[in-house]
Amino acid sequence: MSGTLVLVRHGQSEWNLKNLFTGWRDVDLTEKGHEEAKAAGRIMKERGLTFDVAYTSSLMRAQKTCQHILDAVGQSDLKTMRDEALNERDYGDLAGLNKDDARAKWGEEQVHVWRRSYDVQPPGGESLRDTGARVWPYYMHEIQPHVLRGETVLVAAHGNSLRALIMALDGLTKDEVVKMELATGIPVIYRLNADSTVASKEIVD
C-alpha cells in the first residue's frame, strides 16, 4: 500500500514581493499569492485528489494557502494540524531587512553565505540544517505514519522547511539542496512505498 504526500510552498507573500527577509515574521499573502494558492487547489481538484489530513505551520501565509487548497477540493473543514516545526527558517537579525540593503551592509558574499549555505547561521537565526533538525523529527513522528498507512496528506509550508523535507525524501546532499529552488504555489506530489522510500515524484507546474 502506498500513500500520497503533497507539498506546497505558500503563495507569494507581501514580503516576498518587497524582497524582504521574512522568516518567522507573520506576513500575509499578496493578491497574487492568494491566486497561486487557489490555482494549486484547482490542480488538486482536477486530479481528483482529496486529503485525509493536512499540516501547516504556525504562520498565516502557509495557513491561508492550506485553506485555499482545501476549499478548492471541497474539504474546507478537514482536520488541519498547525505546528511551529514546519515554520520557515528563522532569519534572525535579517528578518524585515531588504535583501539589497543587507548586501550593502554586510557585503554580497556574506549575505549569499547566509542565504545559501547549508550550515551557516545568520546572526540570531537558523541555518538550513537547523531548520531540518526540527522538520525531520516532526515529519517522521507526525506526518509519515499517515502516508505509510496509505493516506493522502497535504503539507502547506515554506521554502526552507520544505527544502529540508525534500532533502530527506530525495536523498540530496547538502550541496545539492542549497541549489534547489522551490516555486510558490506549485504542488510537489510524492507517492511513497510502504517502506517509506519514494515510489514517484511529480512537480505540477
Topology readout:
Layout: E1 3-9, H1 14-17, H2 31-46, E2 53-56, H3 60-72, E3 80-82, H4 99-106, H5 108-116, H6 128-148, E4 152-157, H7 159-170, H8 174-177, E5 188-192, E6 198-203
Parallel strand pairs: 1-4, 2-3, 2-4
Antiparallel strand pairs: 1-5, 5-6
Helix pairs in contact: 2-3, 4-5, 6-7
Active site: 10, 88
GO molecular function: phosphoglycerate mutase activity
Keywords: Gluconeogenesis, Glycolysis, Isomerase
Question: Your description of this structure?
Answer:
The protein is 42% helix and 15% strand. It has a single domain, classed as Phosphoglycerate mutase-like (Rossmann fold), CATH 3.40.50.1240. With 205 residues, it is an alpha/beta fold.
Keywords for this entry:
globular; Rossmann fold; 6 strands; 205 residues; His_PPase_superfam; isomerase; six-stranded mixed β-sheet; alpha/beta; glycolysis; single chain
